[in-house]
Amino acid sequence: MKKVYLISGGITKFAKAHPEKDFRLMVREAYDYALSQVPKFKPSMIDGSVVSYFSDHFTRQLKAGAMVQDFLGLCPKPSRRIEGGGATGGLCIQSAYEAVASGRMKVTVAAGFETMSRVNTWKGNEFIALASDTNYDYPLGGFYTGYYAMMVVRHMHEFGTTPEQMACVSIKNHKNALYNPFAQYPADLTIEDVRKSEMVSWPLTRLDCCTMSDGAAVCILADEDTAFKVCENPVLIKGVGTGTDCMRMADRPHGDVILLPNEREDDYKELKYPGVHSFRAGRTAAKMAYEHAGINNPLDELDFIELHDAYTSSEIQTYEDLGLCKYGEGGSFVEKGKPFLKDIDYGLELPEKAVIPVNPSGGLLASGHPVGATGIMQAVFSLWQLQGTIGKHFGNDKLQIKNAKRGLIHSHAGTGTYVSVTILEKT
What we know:
Layout: E1 4-11, H1 23-36, E2 48-52, H2 56-59, H3 64-71, E3 79-82, H4 88-101, E4 107-115, H5 121-129, H6 144-159, H7 163-176, H8 191-196, E5 199-201, E6 204-205, E7 214-223, H9 224-230, E8 235-244, H10 280-293, H11 298-301, E9 304-306, H12 312-321, H13 330-335, H14 363-367, H15 371-387, H16 390-394, E10 406-413, E11 418-426
Parallel strand pairs: 2-3, 2-4, 9-10
Antiparallel strand pairs: 1-7, 1-8, 4-7, 5-6, 8-11, 10-11
Helix pairs in contact: 1-3, 4-15, 7-12
């Protein structure tokens, strides 16, 4: 396979609504931003695109990807649409990667969007719920806040995780977003704020859940020759991994824990796996990406992670799937302050320095979650981190991780039906 690099990226501001813009204009704005960062690059060098968006229902438009291709001026070059629930953007990045790695293309655009404001929140939740089994789960009232509440209640029962530990995730991500001008929901919160916000599905409150959003994001991927001709500091896609699982959680078989390089069988002798407390697809994606990138201990060898935190509970569960801590230790991991970019005072004792920053951008909870754009947003922010240009794009460098050399982006769909993990490395 050929080496593949990110050479540029752009996003729109994520917002509750952009009523003055349709999806094509949002993507075009992100695309133009990306082009402006690499003046040596010419649009004529683009061989094709991959366009990601989650739902035809939000746009009320089939074949919206073809309309994006037209609006970017890329016709008649090849394009395809990617859809994989919440993991749509992450899968889009990997599909674009494959087009270049295979040699089929030298330069590919990965573009994603969602316009979730076009419907009421209750209708948007209904559309999202169609990403569960419509023959079995959905007719019984299955909505995603309910699914994730059930999973974290099991996590609480098995491992002693607390709602206050989940609130720590919300506090961290919203506070990081105070310094991210692209974020939808920056806020300075306390545990009391999170726990007293409206209850959605116990124990998940409104501030434990990400928001519906409008927004778009674009990345440009290139082969090695092109990347170093047009970009001063391209970022290498070092490893990719994807996992899948049964749509219905009740259909997921129990078995041995999928071990990462830094784990042993003795670590999990008594663990019933995956249960509903863990995401087997996430562990599969992580193992594959780590092997591809040559990573033996993610906590030591990664400098930051942009993680799919649709819920505070799923961020804690994903710490464990990615091997940042052992299964069952996700709650204490966040409580000890390890995933924090900055020391944040919420009444708990924190270490002087974070071990690994998780969601320095603010994540989905605070940056927003326009589904088709989210995984690409993670790639854009990670690109800027590894290029050392956060200050340039954000107007301040408070979220810039010093000397960052390697980062991970993680996208997650359904209740763990699709999960993608992509590892990026500074060159």
